[in-house]
Specification:
Rossmann fold, 434 Repressor (Amino-terminal Domain), single chain, alpha/beta, four-stranded parallel beta sheet
């Protein structure tokens, strides 16, 4: 293998001290701009690669942030990552991405791995089956900042970035009720996770406020993948619902497809509303009403909150107080929740 070019080689080529070379490569103002430019030009010519890992370790930092996701194959996840990357790039941090695939054991292993990689901070959304938080304890004990987003645990001693899921669940359900639907089925995931528990609370509150008795037989919990969603839809259809509120746009699209195969009109016979405002919602027919979940803003907010904590820690100032940040969501009305038809006629507005 060819020998790696070092700062000693640059120092010999330019007849400068290694200290000057090192400062120039770190863009230090202690070295004149002209000299810095000359050193960078020679480094590029000779094929020098700066060892940022060694440099950062000398400074007792990695300039790296760990991002632990519960999934990566959704529009929401990619939007969050885009928001995180937008902030970290501006602040000159790298990111290390790991995902649990909704597996609590895998989340534990990934958390330990990111800790051992010496990340300066951690951004987390919990896996569906994550049952405790002990694996985050080393971060808290070492004073490494942690920020949770989306799926959080309220008792955790760190900042959390969320939407008002109770309000969003209420809006989705109330919209269906306002369109004339009355037996609204609810397909959701594990109520152990804050997001699904709170959307369920919003669903129940909207029913109560509209004088509709809650029927537990109209609620199904599943993984929200295609197979489980189809099973849940088929079970619920035996309970004679006239609408579905589903806490995931992909699962809502699966539901619409299943209803069309059974010659159930959407909307009219059946209203369907999803959650997240994923791209799939504007591609299915009819286009899907949903709740807009601003992943980009959530990622930006989580990253900026974490970096502010890292900067405060490095400065030696008092620790930034942990806080809960609620970002806005919005009801998106499309075709799938048009007015309910009765006896072949639409409900009057």
């Amino acid at each position: 293998m060819d020998k790696q070019v070092t700062i000693y080689d640059l120092a010999r080529a330019l007849n400068l001290s290694t200290a000057t070379i090192s400062r120039a490569l770190d863009n230090s103002p202690l070295v004149k701009l002209h000299t810095r430019e000359k050193i960078r030009a020679m480094a590029e010519q000779m094929g020098y690669r700066q060892n940022l890992i060694a440099s950062n370790l000398r400074k007792q930092q990695s300039r790296t942030i760990g991002v632990l996701l519960h999934e990566v194959n959704s529009n929401f996840a990619t939007s969050v990552l885009s928001g995180i990357e937008k902030i970290t790039a501006k602040e000159k941090y790298d990111i290390l991405i790991a995902h649990s695939g909704e597996d609590g054991a895998r989340e534990i292993a990934n958390t330990r791995n990111l800790f051992n990689k010496r990340v300066d901070g951690l951004i987390v959304s919990l896996a569906m089956t994550s049952s405790d938080t002990d694996h985050f304890t080393p971060f808290f004990e070492q004073g490494i900042p942690v920020v949770f987003f989306d799926r959080v645990i309220k008792k955790m001693p760190c900042s959390k970035i969320v939407i008002d899921n109770i309000k969003a669940g209420y809006q989705a359900t109330a919209h269906l009720l306002d369109q004339g639907y009355r037996r609204i089925a609810h397909i959701t995931a594990s109520l152990q996770r804050n997001v699904y528990e709170e959307r369920f609370k919003g669903y129940k509150k909207a029913l109560a406020d509209h004088g509709i008795p809650f029927d537990p037989e109209l609620v199904e919990n599943c993984s929200l993948n295609r197979e489980d969603t189809l099973d849940a839809v088929n079970r619920l259809l035996t309970k004679k619902p006239d609408a579905f509120f589903i806490t995931n746009d992909f699962a809502a699209a699966v539901c619409i497809d299943a209803l069309k195969e059974k010659n159930i009109r959407v909307p009219g016979d059946m209203g369907v509303i999803g959650f997240n405002n994923d791209v799939i919602g504007s591609l299915v027919s009819p286009k899907l009403s949903t709740i807009d979940y601003p992943g980009l803003l959530m990622g930006e907010t989580a990253a900026q909150t974490l970096i502010d904590k890292i900067k405060t820690k490095k400065s030696g100032k008092a620790t930034v107080e942990s806080k809960n940040i609620t970002i806005p969501s919005a009801l998106v009305i499309r075709e799938s929740t048009g007015k309910k038809h009765r006896a072949g006629k639409p409900v009057k507005a």
